[in-house]
Predict the structure.
Amino acid sequence: MSLRWSPRVETSRVEEFILKRCAKKRKLFVFLRLHRHELFDDEMQERLAAAYGKRRRGEEPVPPAQLAMAAVLQAAFNIPDHDVPEMFVMERRWQMVLDCADANEPPFTQATVYRFRQRMIEHGLDKVLFDKTVALAKKTGAFGAAKLRAAFDACPLYGAGRVEDTFNLIGRAAFHVVRTAAERLGKSLEETAAAAGIPVVAASSIKAGLDIDWDLGSARRDGLRVLLSQVGSLTAWLEAELGAELARPPLSEEVATLKALVEQDTEPDPDGGGRRIKEGVAKDRVISLGDLQMRHGRKSKRQRIDGYKRHIAVDVDSPQFIIGVAVTPANRPERDAAKELLEEVESRGRPIGELQIDRGYLGDEHIEARRQAGMDVVGKPFPLHNHGLFTKADFHIDLAKQAVTCPNDVVVPLRFGSVLHFPDTACAACPKRAACTRARHGRSLSIHDNEPFLLELRAARRTPEGRHRARARIHVEHGLARLATRSGKRARYRGLRKNLFDQRRHAAVVNLRALATLDLTGSAL
Ligand code: SF4
């Protein structure tokens, strides 16, 4: 391979000086300088090189391993793309780690930083880099040989796109369509908007273009009517003027987005025809035109998330290292990431003997299949609240007899994954009714698909040993806090895959910092 990176292993006198200065507060520089040849060994360099085909004209001949090291430093010290080439010539610690002490000119441009990131995403090199840091941690003996005790948890990753209301979503989507149409026709945006009958997109903002008194009760209905009428005019004009062009991206995608946004946020108005803003939130609603994959979601009743959820897995016995990473849209339940996390953790070479999970992962079929096969699952069951009335804990669920007995000894058959109803007549005559239900009819009781497992979790919570075991999950919460502190609460990029890249890269940095803190500057690796 022509673009192999072969930095020196032995340290120079100048490097010794820098290493000494970094030894206390900047251990990551020390670790990367002394162990860069292990991080980017032959196998790693071959994996990176495999992502390179023929070099394109204008691309600088920079070894991919050196670019990958720059990507690690960029995440570790939160450096914007345009400053990365500058660090090669301006920052001595970067020069030491990147083996370019004498560089007077940046060896590449900002565009190379962007292209390399795209290449890492296309070829899954972010996962390769993250896996390599886990492999280095494994070499230190941090993970034992016994069965793994893993823990999963998730926290919000607020999206980088601006969250917009229905008017701005539809109006700005129409603006993108008009802008592309204007480019195709070689005309100005204002000319094209006027010709297409949608002047609202040429105004300083969509709301200004609609020019409506938003204090009036009818403002939203009137504003929507004007906006949708202009969108209709745009659609008809596009068919007439740019029929053939409509099948080509980006116009085809922009028109599809516009139609989807109108469909998701509006519905036929039963009062007077036309369309009105949909009541409630549409399922899988797009919330930002800047990032079409962002979603509204919740971590709890009070905590709303606009964007994504990031998930991590740690080994409870070596919690300083992150061993699994996933990102999901914020509207998806935590359990959607379970399969990816399980497979990633299992690929580390040890079977999972015990899994600590947040209750959001409960009910996942992949976790359940492994539990049935012998994996021990520890977690908090769903809380039982019922506004001061009897909760499920007050009913006796008899798995052997397949029956549920209420506090007044009325028995109904047990059916998993359904709502059980106690007879109206029994509840109406019941002396305990006031403490049980305020429903007009009889009391109902939801039974989970996996109620036997929930019963086990509730029983475990009642014992000191069970509560002690559940507390081990605190380690994964610390790991999440480390990742969120380093990578920030808000996403750096737009789109799920780019954010998965960023979270994996930051997880790799968390692992490298943990290795550096273990003071492995000698021969532990
Ligand atoms: S109200 Fe119905 S379910 Fe509740 S204790 Fe009485 S009989 Fe049982």
